[in-house]
Amino acid sequence: MTQLDERDGVESTEQAIAAASRGSAAYRADPHPVYARLRESAPVCRLSPPHGVETYLITRYDDAKAALTDPRISKDMYAAMDAYHTIFGDSSIALDDNMLFSDPPKHTRLRRIVNSAFSPRRIESLRPRIQEIADELLGNCSTSVPIDLLSSFAFPLPLIVICELLGIPEGERADMQKWCAVVARTGFSKEDKEKLALAEGALREYFVDLIARRRREPTDDLLGALIRTQDEQGAMTDGELLSTLWVLLFAGHKTTAYLIGNAVFNLLTHRDQLQAVLADPELLPNAIEEIIRYEGSVENATFRHALEDITLRDTTIPKGSLVQVSVASANRDPERFASPDTFDVRRKGLQSSHLGFGSGPHYCLGAPLARMEMRIAVTTLFERFPAIDLAVSPDEAEWLKVPFPAFRGLERLPVALEPSRLPLR
Ligand code: HEM
């Protein structure tokens, strides 16, 4: 047995491929040993996932970065309708007619419209409000019993921010959050697909109604700006507008929420690193980049598919197959990052190198907002509660069990904000 085998129980490449194909419990709890094995011996490997569509997983950094910019590896869902139907059914199409599921020139057109409304000035103007929301949420948390930091802080913070940015009224957010949760968590069984269709139908109806209301009574928020651009320039169909609203909402909150959880968990389980950041707050931006590299909230980039036969290393990805790029694996590639399994908030040259926000044309449009939210969330939490600690042992942390890994995050994060105030056990 090699050192890798003893530590991880991933004894062969076949076992690693099987674990990644079916999303085994051990792999979901800690995918890194599987990725280490695959990078070593099957860097472009064929999976047999539960959705039944032939899929190739790319795990090395150089290959991942190249794949994310390779025009032969498409994001246009209309060019892969059979696979798309098999995996998601019909109901997702109306929500996914956006930049994330398209290639140039459509991608360029849709991204440009959102970029013009999502200006640095608009993002910077959110800073005081994000601080206020963070203060309010933490002010409402109990300090005399353990709390779940995910549901009381990490999730509501980015959700409120993106809803306010888009102009989704407060009273309408709870239902939406419920539907989003279904969309993020469903598997591939017939029953799952029915649930998915219901949630997506409800979201679609809600967005159609919201857009109609905003047309009647224009607003100054991001949705108002998108509608104005659409009306003035005719640059987006109604379907594209609806789907754009959806991608901003969905991409804009789950990713950040899980990342806040991963950040707090990893800082609390690497006390020397936390102390370094507390002693020198200027380290915080780099610490956040390191968290995104070490335990980012996006494990695999979204689906892509091969427009032609593509040979990568010794493997030919046949035309029409799905391609999954594991950014979590790429970010732990020892060929790119020295001691990649070490969490080091002082690591150099991170911002331009990790793939946690993707790379190439689909590079995360919300990265500046996500970075701002992360900095405010982490600083506010540790300044207000310097003694915060986990309320469970780190081994009891429950990582998301969704069979097909898109997100990497915790189910819950039990913490004691002020451990000295808890009743003695
Ligand atoms: C820490 C939080 C975040 C992470 C880790 C993250 C990660 C990513 C990644 C990896 C991609 C590329 C997906 C691919 O190529 O398949 C992406 C794309 C995208 N992200 Fe983020 N994201 C975050 C926050 C946000 C926020 C706050 C927003 C919006 C408000 C946002 C909006 C988008 C959009 C619209 C795209 C699609 C861009 C395109 O297709 O051109 N993201 N994100």
Automatic annotation (TrEMBL):
UniProt-annotated stretches for the region Disordered: 1-24
SUPFAM superfamilies per record: Cytochrome P450
Pfam families the record matches: p450 (PF00067)
CDD domains: CYP107-like
Compositionally biased residues, Basic and acidic residues: 1-10
Keywords noted in UniProt: Heme, Iron, Metal-binding, Monooxygenase, Oxidoreductase
Keyword Heme among record annotations: yes
Keyword Oxidoreductase: yes
InterPro entries linked: Cyt_P450, Cyt_P450_B, Cyt_P450_CS, Cyt_P450_sf
PANTHER family in the cross-refs: CYTOCHROME P450 YJIB-RELATED, P450, PUTATIVE (EUROFUNG)-RELATED
Family (UniProt): Belongs to the cytochrome P450 family.
Protein name: Cytochrome P450
Organism phylogeny: Bacteria, Bacillati, Actinomycetota, Actinomycetes, Kitasatosporales
